[in-house]
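Entry 12.
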Amino acid sequence: MHISLYLQQLRRELPQNAEPAMDHLESEIEIARVQQMMESMSLLSQDPGSLTPEILHLDQWLRDLLPLYQEAAETLGCSFETRLDASSSIRASDSALRQIFSNLISNAFRYAVPASAIHVSVVQDGPLWVALSVANPSTPPTVDPLLLAQPFVRGANDREGTGLGLAVVENLCQAMGARFSCRYAEGIFSARVLLPRATPDSKTASVLATQ
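Predicted 3D structure (tokens):
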């Protein structure tokens, strides 16, 4: 539910003596929104030199990460469907990739049709790339999907958000040599990140995977 609508409903349902608590809650939410926007703005100017590339086994990396989003998905009535290629080693920044995935999942939660499945896939894309995709049923965006990676552009005006999530994804992808794209077709919005495959001579800071 749209946060502002939820707060309005909550005000109607709570007794009048709860007004001070509601005012405090709304203030805290607004502070959190401003902090989120400031953090996102800082990520829009991410220095590639500040990212440390590592060898990541992307299938296992996602299996470890997805449970962190399960409760939020269930709260929204959504579920995850996955297709994870076992031979999907990549060379990327773990911290940047976590931010990218968080933004893609948050975007899917925000725009997905209620009680729908969010599809997360990892597949090889030719000899050089591994594709990480997040797709969800959605109503058509109000702008061209090609514009959604620009700062402050949102897919719909009736959703909460800063309009910076996919712009941050685009910037972080550029900073670590990945490629980002999104599209809408036949009722499905999909966001896709092409990540460089790890090669035998890749320099490894560490191998992150749970064996």
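Annotation: The chain has two domains: 3-43, 48-208. Residues 4 and 150 are 25 Å apart (CA to CA).
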